[in-house]
Input
Amino acid sequence: MKKIIQKIEPYIWILPSVLLMFVFILIPIVFVFRMALSKVSRAGLIKGFTGFANFSKILSTPTFSMVLKNTLVWTVAVVGLSTLLGFILALLLNNAFKGRKVARAIVVFPWATTLVVQASIWKFIIDTDYGTLNTLLMRLGIIDHAVNWTPSAGAWFAWEIACGIFVTIPFVTFTVLSGLQSIDGSYYEAATVDGANYWQQLFKITIPLVSSSLTVSTVLNIIYVFNSFPIIWNMTKGDPGNRTDTLVTYLYKLAFYNGKQGEAAAVSVIGFMILLVCATVYMVATLRKGDE
Amino acid sequence: MKKKTLKKFIALTLSMATALSVAACGSSPSSSESNDKQDAQTEADDKADTEADDKEEASGDKIELSVIAAQYGQNTADWWKTFETDFEKDNSGIDINVEVISWNDISTTVNTRVANNQAPDILNIDVFADYQADDLLLPAQDYVSEETYGKMYEAFLEQSNVDGTIWAIPDLASARAMYYNKDILEGAGVTAPPTTWDELTEACKKIKEKYPDVYPWGIDMTTDEGQAAFAYYIWNNGGDFTDADGNWTLNSPENVAAIEYAIQLIKDGYTNSDPANETRYDLQDMFGTGKVAMMIAPNSLPTYVKDGGNEVNYGMAPIPNNNGTSVSAGVMDRFMCFDNEYSDEELEAIKTFFDYFYEDERYSAWVEMEGFLPATKTGGETLAAKDESMAEWIDIVGSCKFYPTAKAEWADVKQGVISAEQNALLGESVQEQLDNLQAEIAP
Output
């Protein structure tokens, strides 16, 4: 009897978290899949199974490929650049200098502010008519009349990416910083004795030893940024003409502006699959490297 | 050993807490429901004690009505609260529960309720066709008394006509006209506000020459309200969304020419710089500060400008047109009643609700509360008698056109015309965009 209890005991302990995941993660996922495979009326009632009709409808529109391309550009640019910049910032903040604590605190600010507020502020800064950027440059005498900083859809998208990078950097910085602090100083001492220069130390010691932190931050960032809604929604709503839409803003419009909840669920499923594949490939690749 | 016990104790406590949180989450709808009831109870407590006693005694026989209402502005929730108190005082057999929900959430909330078989009895929202298409609604004449029904403007009721049956009744309306900054127009040598498109172009040109920093004309082609711009131009060029038989005519020559004209104004630099991104509210702000000289806006614009702390010497005129008749765009919201298999008493209670709501004095107060226009003839007369500036608007609202919201394809058409406008802004052909849309909507 005691043996049986001992055997099932661990499962009882993990039962609550399994239940939690089941209720809040698995069930919603199943619901979304069901919706994606159903005909859904505009009032939200499920009117029967339609197979892959929602998917084929979505995939046949030219808008979808544009939105998919935008999503890729958005994710790669934001995650790539913020990882690079965040890493550099972490290296800087890991040095001992006066006011380091203050500097570290400042780096957290963009992260601590809600994205809606961030996006609204950025939009206000670059506004053609009332923007602080134009006002500042005019006061400094650098420009003599207001510049339209967002003359095209591409320009809007670039600003959105910039805002995305700005708010993502702190997360990378702090993840990497924690990795850096766990590196034993003696490695560097030994390397210095052996005559290794800064770059050799960076590539042979620092990067390999923080790679697991980088993996974590990159995978999480891919998921966050891919699914990020507030920045794009607050700055452009995906306009003009879907040129700045990503999958998430696009599916929101489909569901709540066009009333096509089945198709929106299909987009959601496609996004989920893409993320699943990306995250799995990346994790497997980097963890295997780590094992070697 | 002791340490082990302690560990077990901590683990047990934690797991209990987790399990409890699951249970709490699972039961949250009912707990929030009981909160609602508590709120309702608190409200009831505010009433006279005797009444509370009456209520307790009679609570078993009371007919309960659930109402979901859109939040028009700051005052809506308070207005409904007073309404609820007054109504229950005057109709002791009926217990109404009004939930006021913001525009952002109301559709999602209602859809969730409907999906869970908890549709409200009465709903106040903008569109009805989606619910009607799912057979969720009752015909208006089933739940509105003849007298109250007779008060509504015919043209307004027609907006909720599907296959010869009226499914919803108008609760209020709003109409649009052109507002202009008198000082700027005078300064630029524009003696009278433009009435035709040629005059409009000419006025824009003069304003641009005199005041290079002012945008002569405001245009909003955003996802928020781009369909309004579409309507202003096509209606004032003799075009329309549909023909007289209700067939979609999105790519008619009049419509194409109208949108091409609007796009040309933008290309010539006569408008705000980013019409795909600047909403009507942005334009209203710019109008308030004298950055935009002329724009099409609802009758609430003066209040909006004033509330923003600005002052403009403004005038109002019909929307400029290209075919001799100016058409104003009307927007109308509605009440509808979900078919929750009512007993005769319950239907009577709903009729009582509407009779009470549309009672002339109360209805005028409702319309005035957020600066809208009345949807009933008697309400119109009452308001026009009170306020002269209102009289002008009541004439406009009596003759304006509405979006074809009764048609099932409207949501797609709305997004489609916005997308067509935005693509045209990006340099694509208006003709091609509207041809594609027409083919998509009416294959």
